[in-house]
Specification:
253 residues; alpha+beta; Metal Binding Protein, Guanine Nucleotide Exchange Factor, Chain A; 2 domains; four-stranded antiparallel beta sheet; 9 strands; 35% helix; 15% strand; binds zinc ion
Length: 253
Protein backbone atom coordinates (compact mmCIF):
# COMPACT_ATOMS: atom_id res chain seq x y z
CA UNK A 1 0.00 0.00 0.00
CA UNK A 2 1.30 3.39 -0.92
CA UNK A 3 1.09 5.81 1.97
CA UNK A 4 0.05 9.29 0.98
CA UNK A 5 2.31 11.93 2.43
CA UNK A 6 0.63 14.32 4.81
CA UNK A 7 0.28 17.95 3.84
CA UNK A 8 2.55 18.67 6.79
CA UNK A 9 5.38 16.83 5.07
CA UNK A 10 4.69 18.76 1.87
CA UNK A 11 4.88 22.01 3.83
CA UNK A 12 8.21 21.00 5.33
CA UNK A 13 9.62 20.15 1.92
CA UNK A 14 8.27 23.42 0.52
CA UNK A 15 9.87 25.46 3.31
CA UNK A 16 13.27 23.87 2.87
CA UNK A 17 13.03 24.36 -0.91
CA UNK A 18 12.08 27.99 -0.51
CA UNK A 19 14.95 28.64 1.85
CA UNK A 20 17.24 28.02 -1.12
CA UNK A 21 14.77 29.20 -3.68
CA UNK A 22 15.58 31.11 -6.79
CA UNK A 23 13.26 32.74 -9.29
CA UNK A 24 12.87 29.55 -11.32
CA UNK A 25 11.49 27.70 -8.33
CA UNK A 26 9.24 30.61 -7.41
CA UNK A 27 7.79 30.87 -10.91
CA UNK A 28 7.19 27.12 -10.91
CA UNK A 29 5.27 27.51 -7.66
CA UNK A 30 3.24 30.41 -9.06
CA UNK A 31 1.90 28.06 -11.72
CA UNK A 32 0.54 25.75 -9.01
CA UNK A 33 -2.85 25.96 -7.28
CA UNK A 34 -3.82 27.91 -4.17
CA UNK A 35 -1.68 25.88 -1.74
CA UNK A 36 1.52 26.96 -3.41
CA UNK A 37 0.41 30.58 -3.66
CA UNK A 38 0.50 30.63 0.14
CA UNK A 39 4.03 29.23 0.16
CA UNK A 40 5.19 31.82 -2.37
CA UNK A 41 3.57 34.56 -0.31
CA UNK A 42 5.47 33.29 2.73
CA UNK A 43 8.66 33.28 0.67
CA UNK A 44 8.13 36.91 -0.36
CA UNK A 45 7.40 37.86 3.26
CA UNK A 46 10.70 36.35 4.32
CA UNK A 47 12.79 37.59 1.43
CA UNK A 48 11.41 41.12 1.19
CA UNK A 49 10.51 41.55 4.88
CA UNK A 50 6.87 42.18 4.01
CA UNK A 51 3.67 41.67 5.95
CA UNK A 52 1.32 38.95 4.68
CA UNK A 53 -0.99 41.55 3.13
CA UNK A 54 1.84 43.41 1.39
CA UNK A 55 3.40 40.20 0.06
CA UNK A 56 0.07 39.06 -1.32
CA UNK A 57 -0.47 42.43 -2.97
CA UNK A 58 2.93 42.25 -4.59
CA UNK A 59 2.32 38.66 -5.76
CA UNK A 60 -0.99 39.70 -7.34
CA UNK A 61 0.85 42.20 -9.50
CA UNK A 62 2.50 39.25 -11.29
CA UNK A 63 -0.34 36.79 -10.91
CA UNK A 64 -3.71 38.57 -10.40
CA UNK A 65 -5.67 35.35 -9.85
CA UNK A 66 -3.83 34.45 -6.62
CA UNK A 67 -6.17 34.11 -3.67
CA UNK A 68 -5.11 31.94 -0.72
CA UNK A 69 -8.12 30.71 1.26
CA UNK A 70 -8.88 31.71 4.87
CA UNK A 71 -6.97 28.77 6.32
CA UNK A 72 -3.81 29.76 4.51
CA UNK A 73 -4.27 33.42 5.39
CA UNK A 74 -4.37 32.33 9.03
CA UNK A 75 -1.15 30.37 8.57
CA UNK A 76 0.49 33.37 6.92
CA UNK A 77 -0.56 35.52 9.89
CA UNK A 78 1.17 33.03 12.21
CA UNK A 79 4.24 33.13 9.98
CA UNK A 80 4.19 36.92 10.27
CA UNK A 81 3.89 36.68 14.07
CA UNK A 82 7.09 34.60 14.10
CA UNK A 83 8.91 37.45 12.34
CA UNK A 84 8.60 35.91 8.84
CA UNK A 85 10.75 32.96 9.69
CA UNK A 86 10.18 29.46 10.95
CA UNK A 87 11.00 29.36 14.63
CA UNK A 88 10.39 25.75 15.62
CA UNK A 89 10.58 26.60 19.32
CA UNK A 90 8.01 29.38 19.20
CA UNK A 91 4.64 28.62 20.72
CA UNK A 92 2.85 30.05 17.65
CA UNK A 93 4.67 27.51 15.48
CA UNK A 94 3.79 24.62 17.80
CA UNK A 95 0.14 25.65 17.96
CA UNK A 96 0.10 25.96 14.17
CA UNK A 97 1.71 22.56 13.73
CA UNK A 98 -0.63 20.73 16.13
CA UNK A 99 -3.67 22.40 14.59
CA UNK A 100 -2.40 21.48 11.15
CA UNK A 101 -1.88 17.85 12.19
CA UNK A 102 -5.42 17.84 13.60
CA UNK A 103 -6.85 19.05 10.29
CA UNK A 104 -4.82 16.45 8.40
CA UNK A 105 -6.11 13.73 10.74
CA UNK A 106 -9.70 14.90 10.17
CA UNK A 107 -9.13 14.57 6.42
CA UNK A 108 -8.07 10.96 6.96
CA UNK A 109 -4.42 11.50 6.12
CA UNK A 110 -1.86 8.99 7.36
CA UNK A 111 0.37 10.41 10.09
CA UNK A 112 4.05 9.70 9.87
CA UNK A 113 5.77 9.46 13.23
CA UNK A 114 8.34 11.97 11.96
CA UNK A 115 5.53 14.55 12.14
CA UNK A 116 5.58 14.12 15.94
CA UNK A 117 8.04 15.77 18.29
CA UNK A 118 11.07 13.72 19.26
CA UNK A 119 10.83 11.77 22.51
CA UNK A 120 12.32 13.90 25.32
CA UNK A 121 12.93 10.69 27.31
CA UNK A 122 14.96 8.91 24.64
CA UNK A 123 18.65 8.37 25.31
CA UNK A 124 19.65 10.49 22.33
CA UNK A 125 18.03 13.64 23.73
CA UNK A 126 20.40 15.33 26.18
CA UNK A 127 18.88 16.92 29.26
CA UNK A 128 20.50 19.88 30.96
CA UNK A 129 22.28 19.21 34.26
CA UNK A 130 20.10 19.95 37.30
CA UNK A 131 20.81 23.25 38.95
CA UNK A 132 19.55 24.84 42.15
CA UNK A 133 20.72 28.29 41.28
CA UNK A 134 19.32 30.62 38.69
CA UNK A 135 22.12 32.04 36.63
CA UNK A 136 21.41 35.47 35.30
CA UNK A 137 20.52 35.47 31.64
CA UNK A 138 19.83 31.73 31.62
CA UNK A 139 16.25 30.71 31.09
CA UNK A 140 15.02 28.02 33.41
CA UNK A 141 13.44 25.03 31.82
CA UNK A 142 11.17 22.35 33.21
CA UNK A 143 11.31 18.60 32.70
CA UNK A 144 8.26 16.47 33.47
CA UNK A 145 8.75 12.89 34.63
CA UNK A 146 6.33 10.02 35.19
CA UNK A 147 5.62 10.06 38.93
CA UNK A 148 5.79 6.29 39.16
CA UNK A 149 8.98 5.42 37.27
CA UNK A 150 10.69 8.81 36.76
CA UNK A 151 10.94 8.50 33.00
CA UNK A 152 11.01 11.90 31.25
CA UNK A 153 7.75 12.35 29.34
CA UNK A 154 7.79 16.04 28.40
CA UNK A 155 9.77 19.23 28.52
CA UNK A 156 8.68 22.85 28.60
CA UNK A 157 9.11 23.07 24.84
CA UNK A 158 6.49 20.36 24.29
CA UNK A 159 3.76 22.20 26.17
CA UNK A 160 1.09 23.91 24.06
CA UNK A 161 -0.48 26.77 25.96
CA UNK A 162 -4.19 27.57 25.91
CA UNK A 163 -6.29 30.51 27.09
CA UNK A 164 -6.98 29.59 30.71
CA UNK A 165 -10.71 29.71 31.30
CA UNK A 166 -11.46 29.69 27.59
CA UNK A 167 -14.06 32.49 27.56
CA UNK A 168 -17.63 31.53 26.81
CA UNK A 169 -17.10 27.78 26.93
CA UNK A 170 -15.66 28.16 30.43
CA UNK A 171 -18.73 30.10 31.47
CA UNK A 172 -21.01 27.33 30.22
CA UNK A 173 -18.91 24.68 31.89
CA UNK A 174 -18.89 26.46 35.24
CA UNK A 175 -22.60 27.05 34.97
CA UNK A 176 -23.11 23.30 34.58
CA UNK A 177 -21.23 22.89 37.87
CA UNK A 178 -24.24 24.63 39.37
CA UNK A 179 -22.65 25.82 42.60
CA UNK A 180 -23.03 29.37 43.83
CA UNK A 181 -19.81 31.30 43.82
CA UNK A 182 -18.10 29.16 41.18
CA UNK A 183 -18.11 32.09 38.79
CA UNK A 184 -15.76 34.04 41.01
CA UNK A 185 -13.20 31.24 41.39
CA UNK A 186 -10.09 31.47 39.28
CA UNK A 187 -10.06 28.61 36.76
CA UNK A 188 -7.46 25.94 37.48
CA UNK A 189 -5.78 23.65 34.94
CA UNK A 190 -5.23 20.21 36.47
CA UNK A 191 -3.67 19.04 33.20
CA UNK A 192 -1.29 20.36 30.64
CA UNK A 193 -1.56 19.90 26.90
CA UNK A 194 1.42 18.93 24.81
CA UNK A 195 2.33 18.34 21.18
CA UNK A 196 2.15 14.69 20.05
CA UNK A 197 5.49 13.02 20.78
CA UNK A 198 7.12 9.90 19.45
CA UNK A 199 6.65 7.93 22.69
CA UNK A 200 2.86 8.16 22.30
CA UNK A 201 2.44 4.81 20.59
CA UNK A 202 -1.36 4.83 21.03
CA UNK A 203 -1.51 8.03 18.96
CA UNK A 204 0.50 6.42 16.18
CA UNK A 205 -2.08 3.64 15.89
CA UNK A 206 -4.30 6.17 14.13
CA UNK A 207 -7.34 6.07 16.44
CA UNK A 208 -9.31 9.23 17.27
CA UNK A 209 -8.97 9.00 21.03
CA UNK A 210 -7.30 6.91 23.68
CA UNK A 211 -5.17 6.75 26.79
CA UNK A 212 -1.66 8.08 27.10
CA UNK A 213 0.46 5.63 29.05
CA UNK A 214 4.04 5.89 30.20
CA UNK A 215 6.17 3.85 27.78
CA UNK A 216 8.31 2.51 30.61
CA UNK A 217 5.87 1.54 33.39
CA UNK A 218 2.54 1.86 31.56
CA UNK A 219 1.12 4.19 34.21
CA UNK A 220 -1.76 6.21 32.84
CA UNK A 221 -0.61 9.78 32.32
CA UNK A 222 -3.57 11.23 30.47
CA UNK A 223 -5.65 11.01 27.33
CA UNK A 224 -5.64 12.18 23.77
CA UNK A 225 -8.45 13.11 21.44
CA UNK A 226 -7.97 14.45 17.92
CA UNK A 227 -11.45 16.00 18.12
CA UNK A 228 -10.52 17.96 21.24
CA UNK A 229 -11.04 17.89 25.00
CA UNK A 230 -12.03 20.34 27.67
CA UNK A 231 -9.44 21.37 30.25
CA UNK A 232 -10.51 21.57 33.90
CA UNK A 233 -10.34 25.37 33.48
CA UNK A 234 -13.11 25.16 30.88
CA UNK A 235 -11.06 25.85 27.75
CA UNK A 236 -11.44 23.58 24.73
CA UNK A 237 -8.19 22.30 23.29
CA UNK A 238 -8.27 20.76 19.79
CA UNK A 239 -6.63 18.40 19.08
CA UNK A 240 -5.80 17.45 22.68
CA UNK A 241 -2.83 15.52 24.06
CA UNK A 242 -3.41 15.84 27.75
CA UNK A 243 -1.10 14.92 30.62
CA UNK A 244 -2.41 15.05 34.20
CA UNK A 245 -0.18 17.18 36.39
CA UNK A 246 -0.88 14.85 39.34
CA UNK A 247 0.71 11.92 37.47
CA UNK A 248 3.99 13.73 36.89
CA UNK A 249 6.78 15.38 38.80
CA UNK A 250 8.17 18.62 37.49
CA UNK A 251 11.89 19.29 37.86
CA UNK A 252 13.39 22.71 37.18
CA UNK A 253 16.74 23.15 35.53
ZN1 LIG B 1 6.33 5.55 34.16
ZN1 LIG C 1 -6.76 24.95 31.29
Amino acid sequence: MRIRRTSWTIWRVAWSLLRKADLVVVSWFIARPVFHAAVVTAYLMQKEHLSAAAALKSLRRISPGVHPNDGFMEQLAIFESMGNKIDRDSSSYKKFKVKFLGESFAKGEVMESSSYASDPGSATVKLPAPSNTIESGTERSTVYRCKKCRRVVARDENVIGHDVGGGESAFKWQKRGGKEGMYTQAPVCTSMFVEPMQWMTAVEEGVVEGKLQCVKCEARLGNFNWSGMQCSCGAWVTPAFQLHKSRMDAAYF
